[in-house]
Amino acid sequence: QEVSITRRQHGGLAGQMDKLDEELRLAARVQREFLPTQVPQIGDIDIQVMFRPASYVSGDIYDIQRLDEDHLGLWIADVVGHGVPAALMTMFVKRALPTKEVHANHYRLVPPHEAMTRLNHEMVNRSSGTMRFATACYALLNCRTCELQVSRAGHPYPLLLRGEQSIDLTESDGPMLGVFDDEVFPTARYQLRPGDRLLLYSDGFETAFPDGDSHDLTRFKQEFAQLNVGTVKQAMAHLEEVIDAQPGSLN
Predict the structure, then answer these.
(1) Cα–chain center distance at 185
(2) Which of 165, 118, 108 lies closest to 138, judged by CA?
(3) CA Rg, the chain, in Å?
(4) Quick one: which of 46, 81, 149, 209 has the fewest CB in 10 Å?
(5) What is the pLDDT of residues 227-244, one digit of tens each?
(6) Digit-coded pLDDT (tens) for 201-220
(7) Share of the chain above pLDDT 90, in %
(8) Is 52 helix (H, G, I), strand (E, B) or coil?
(9) Torsion, CA 174, CA 181, CA 80, CA 25, rounded to 10
C-alpha cells in the first residue's frame, strides 16, 4: 500500500513538473516574440546578435530598430533578478522605451537621454509597491554621418573596437533605472570611423565565466578584443565557441 501511494505521489509530482516545463517553454516563446525577427540593415552597417538565456527565460532584452532612412536605434537592457518575474519586466521595459514620436505630418526621433528619462519615470511610477530595477544602454546611430549618441543607465560601458584598441565609452554615464524619478541620463556623442566595431553587452557573461571575481570584466575584455578579427559574423561565431567552452555555459 505504501509503495502504491508513493508511486501515485511520484506520478502527480511528475505531472506537475511537466506542466511547469510546458509553461516555462511557453513563456520563453512569448519573450522571444518581443525580440527582433530580423536585423535591419542600412548601407554598409553590419549587425550581429548573440542571445543566450541562462534558463528558459532571460532577464536581458535587446532591440534594433530602423527609425528612418538614416538612423538606427540600438537598445539593450538587463532587469535585476532572474526567472519569469525578470522576463516579464523586460517586456514592460521594451514597450515603455520611447524611440520615435509620429505626428500628423512629421516625426521626431527621441534623443537617448530623453528616452532614458521617460523610461525611468515609467518604471518608478508603475512599481506598485514592488521595486523593480534595470540597467540599460540606448545608442542612436546616424548611418550617413556615422555619429553615435549613447545614453547609459548603470549598464556595462559599450566597447568601441578600433583597430588594435578597445575603448570603453565611459563618457556615457548614468544611474540605474527605477530608483529615483529625477535622475539625469546624459548623452555622449562619438564619431565612428570606417571599420570601427561597437559592442553592446550585458554582464550575463559571468554565468559562463564563473572563475574569479564576477565584477572583474578583464577576462571578458580580453575575449571581446578578439572580435576585431575577421568579418563581424566570423567574430560572433568565435565568441559563441568561446562561450560554449566555458565551464559555466549551459547546454
Answers:
(1) 18
(2) 118
(3) 21
(4) 46
(5) 888 899 999 998 888 888
(6) 888 776 666 665 555 566 67
(7) 34
(8) coil
(9) -120
Instruction: Provide the grid cell at 81.
Output: 533578478
DSSP 120: H
Q: Is the dihedral of CA 67, 69, 71, 75 positive or negative?
A: positive
Gap between the Cα atoms of 218 and 49, Å rounded: 22
All cell numbers assigned to 151: 545614453
DSSP class per residue in 162-187 = ETTEEEE-TTS--PPBTS-TT-----
Judge whether 242 and 225 are in contact, CB under 8 Å.
no
Distance CA 112, CA 138 (A): 6
Look up the pTM and report it.
Answer: 0.84
DSSP structural state of residue 154? B
| Residue at 199: amino acid letter | L
Q: How is residue 211 annotated by DSSP?
A: S
Which of 176, 199, 173, 159 has the alpha carbon at shortest distance from 74? 199
CB distance 198 to 148 below 8 Å: yes
CA distance 242 to 121: 38
For the chain, report the end-to-end CA distance as a whole number of angstroms: 40
